[in-house]
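In the previous chapter we treated chains in isolation. Here, by contrast, the input contains two separate entities that must be folded as one system, with a combined length of 249 residues.
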Amino acid sequence: MSIEGLDPLIHPPARLQLMALVAEVTEMEFATARALLDVSDSVLSKHLAQLAAAEYLALRKATADGRQRTWIAVTAAGRKAFAGHVAALQALAGLAAKGGS
Amino acid sequence: MDDPAEALAALRAARRRMAGRARWSFGRHLAVGLIMGILIASYSLPGALPLLGLALCLAAVVLIVARDRRRDGFFVSGYRPGRTRPFTFALLGCVIGLMLLALAARHALGWAWAPLAASVPVAALVTWGSLHWERIYRRELEDAEDGA
């Protein structure tokens, strides 16, 4: 698999799925993302920190029902990077399909 | 995951899981329709009372957004990019058109009841529109061809 056009930051499966989920909503709460991805708190926190450091995701803390919650939103840069990564995956999958036929 | 087809399949699976959560009750859709209906109906009221209607409707929208966030753990704007956006703007255009007609009838013809009369089809249209928006959104998530 060629790495041309792929974003190594988004490439790991959990991050790819996280970006796919967050790209479809305005904001998603940490617990909802964790449940949808079926990962632990620490794993999700690690992925969020890396994507937020690259400014692909914006994290917002808010208090609700006496508990602090983290809300996740995709940034314009994150949306662009995700779209580019998916396009590269589609191109590679297309090439692989042609090569296999 | 070094196989691009496998990565795309994982991406589709995540979107389908999201589609399973993207469901709102009829009451939630009706609430949106009623808010728009009440907003327009309030223009039948005299003086500055329509401003009170506007303030009440804005407060109701804030409450609905807060409820969505609390209940669902996510919030989706009606103006999000994707297949839903053209529908959102078409619906908005219809509502604004009906509202302008009602306001014109009130001011040019003196029909103070015109906004009240327009509020009924607007409430019905927005309720249907909200339900239909949800269907478009879910379909987009379910049969997403990896579209980012």
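Residues 76-100 of chain A form the longest helix (25 residues). The two ends of chain A are 17 Å apart (CA to CA). Compare these points with the single-chain example from earlier in the chapter.
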